[in-house]
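Morning run. Coffee first, then this:
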Amino acid sequence: MKILVTGSSGHLGEALVRTLRTSNHEVVGIDVIPSAFTDKVGSIADRQFVKQCMKGINAVMHTATLHKPHVATHSNQQFIDTNISGTLNLLEEDLAAGIDAFIFTSTTSTFGGAMVPRKGQPAVWITEEVVPIPKNIYGVTKTTAENLCELFSRNHSLPNIVLRTSRFFPEDDDQEQTRLAYENDNTKVNELLYRRVDLMDVVSAHLKALEKASSIGFGKYIISATTPFTYDDLSELTSDAPKVVKRLYPDYAELFKDKEWKMFPSIERVYVNERARKELDWQPKHDFRYALDCIKSGIDYRSALSIKTGSKGYHTKKFEKGPYPIK
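And here it is:
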């Protein structure tokens, strides 16, 4: 199978190209930024470029996007051009080329305001049934792109899987308060409890989606590390998250103490990946328990693929008040 990977110079795009190159698949990477994993340089907003790239392609993995860190540096129109028009170009050229499957990388950021509980209320249990309330142009354009994917699947029988991925970037947190209060690895390990996923597990979800696309037709899935929490934990998570974590992982506190780490005092939402595990037969490996076991053994909790791909940033310049500009 010949697979087109958009955004091949980014975190996920590179990881997909790296992985696919070791398989029996032929892969073509495209991006606006040149890299060792990008075969053709150009924009998905350029319809003619997309058309040329689609020759001989059997399936598309569409990871290219403007991200949340770009909200302060890019215009609304640029978000629309890349995230909506770019996706539309790919979908329409897919139909013309007779593509077998389209895998779209979306984001849990689409849930937006739906992820924030009211004061004194339990943490929010985030499943695919939760209705998104986008809170910025990033969320709006990704939600619209998801809807385009569903429309083309329904109206044109294009097998199409939408994967709403949680955080997998290795860069520092975008919130200054979090950066000042927690070491970067401390933050990332904490997030594996409820809102983070390892890059290798994201790649495996995309491969499973490709395998299952024709039989599913259209599906939308949350891709995040498997949470240990249950619905019954939600009230206590907002008031005393460390207590809940200690009950589930009695050894975590001592391990954290040795590293001078700490747990978040409150957790406000929990991503649930049950549908993806069941319908895609996806088996994510890297969760909070895995990270604790790595700490015990003195090894890196990240996958080898995540380490190889490394940190890329989202801008070519540095900013005075943190890794990302705030609008």
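The radius of gyration is 20 Å. Good start to the day.
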